Amino acid sequence: WDWILLAVTGLVTITFWYLRRYHNHWKSVGVYTPPGVLPGVGHFKEAAIFKKSAGWLICEMYHQNKSHPAIGIYIFRKPALVLRDLDLIKDVLIREFSSFHDNSYKLDEKLNTYLNKNLFNEKGQSWKTSRQRLGPVFSSSRIKSTFPLVQRVCKEFNEYMEKHLDEDINIHQVLSMFTSEIIAKCVFGLDDNVFNDPNAEFYQQGQKLWADSFYSPVMMYVTYFFPIVNKLLGRGLLPKDVLEFLASTVKQTAEYRKKNPDKVPDDYIQYFLNIENQDAGFTIEDVIAHSLTFFTDGSESSSVAAHFVIYELTVNPDIQEAVRQEVLAMDSFSFESISSLPLLDRVIQESMRKYGLFFMSRECTKDYVLKADGRSFPVRKGQEVIIPVYAIQRDPEIYPDPEKFDPDRFLPENAKNRHPMAFMPFGAG
C-alpha cells in the first residue's frame, strides 16, 4: 500500500507541475496576471463547470483590474492578453493591424469548408483576397440597390402585424421571420413568403441552425476553446442538411440565371455570380460560402438586435413616442428618408452599446510588443489578444450610469468627446 500511495502522490504531483508550468508565461515576461489561476483551467474554472460564461468572466476581470492597461490571463492552458487601454485596442485593430489581422477562432478545414471561407474565419492572404473581392458588397450603393426588396418585406410585415393586432405574438419569432425574408429576397433571390406560411422552407432551414444542438451556444463555446472537438466528433459546426439545402439553392439559382439572362435581378447572389464569371479563382463553391455568410451571420444577429431595440422602446414609452413622431414626419418611405432619422439612429446605437458583443479576439501573426503607460506587453506569434467590448461599453468611467438607456449619449456633441474605441458594435479597423 505504501508503494501505491507513493506512486499516486507522485503522479498527482507530476500532473500538477505539468499543468502549472503552462501558467508561468505572463510572469516570465513581466505582465500582471490576476490571482485565481487554477492548473488546467487557468482563470476559467467557473466557465469549465458552466457556472459563468467566458465572456462574463472576461468582463469581471476588466472591471476588477482598473489600474492595468492590459492583463495576462489563461484560458485553460492557453495564455491570452486582455486589453483595457483604448489606445492599445486601437493599436491592435488599426495602427498595427498587420501584426494582428487574423481572427483567433479556428475550425477544422475539412469539416467546415464553407464556414472557413467566411470573412470572419479566413486568415492571411485568403482573407485579403476575399476582402478585396467583396468590399463593394457592403457599399452604400449596393445596399440602396436592394432597398425595393426591403420595402416589399416591410409591407408584408405590416400586413402580418395588422392581421394579428388582437393576439399575443412572439416578437422574437416575428422578427426572425422578418430578417429571414429579407435575406431570402436580397441575397438568394427567393420569395419565401414566410408571413403567409410559417413553415416556409428557407425560414425553417434557418431555424435549424439554432435548434440543432451542435450549433447551440454551448457547442459554439466548446469548439471555440477546444477546436479539436470538431475533429473528434467527425462533423462540422453546421447541420449537414442545411448546408445541402443552401448549396442546392445557390446552384439551381445560378443555373436558372445562366439560361434566363434577361430575368436577372440585382441582388447579392448575382453579384457573387458576376465575380465567378470574371474571376477564375472564384468558384461556385465560393458563391455558396459567401451566400452562407449572410444566412448564418445576418438572420439571427439582426433579429436579436431589433429585439433589443423594441424592448428598450417598450420600457421607455417617452422615447418610443418621440421615435414614432419622427417616423410619422417622413414624407415617404425611401432609402434616403430612413437614413435621415437622427433619433432612431441614436436609439439603435444606444441599444447596441447596452447589448453588444461580449468580446472580440485577434491572433498575433508575428511577435509584437504593445506599450502603454511606460509598460510593455510582449505578445508572441499565435497568442490571442482579447478586446472586452461588452465591458468597455458598460464602463461607468466612459458611460456614466451605464445601465440607463440614454440615446442622447450619441448626440454629436457628446459622441465626439469619446475615444473611437469606446463604441465597437461591429468591431473596428
UniProtKB/TrEMBL annotation:
It is found in: Endoplasmic reticulum membrane; Microsome membrane. Pfam families: p450 (PF00067). Its cofactor is heme. The keyword Nucleotide-binding does not apply. InterPro entries: Cyt_P450, Cyt_P450_E_grp-IV, Cyt_P450_sf, Insect_CytP450_Detox. One of its GO terms (cellular component) is endoplasmic reticulum membrane. The keyword Transferase does not apply. Its main location: endoplasmic reticulum. Gene3D superfamilies: Cytochrome P450. It is a peripheral membrane protein. Keywords: Endoplasmic reticulum, Heme, Iron, Membrane, Metal-binding, Microsome, Monooxygenase, Oxidoreductase. GO terms for molecular function: heme binding; iron ion binding; monooxygenase activity; oxidoreductase activity, acting on paired donors, with incorporation or reduction of molecular oxygen. Belongs to the cytochrome P450 family. May be involved in the metabolism of insect hormones and in the breakdown of synthetic insecticides. This is Cytochrome P450. It comes from Cuerna arida.
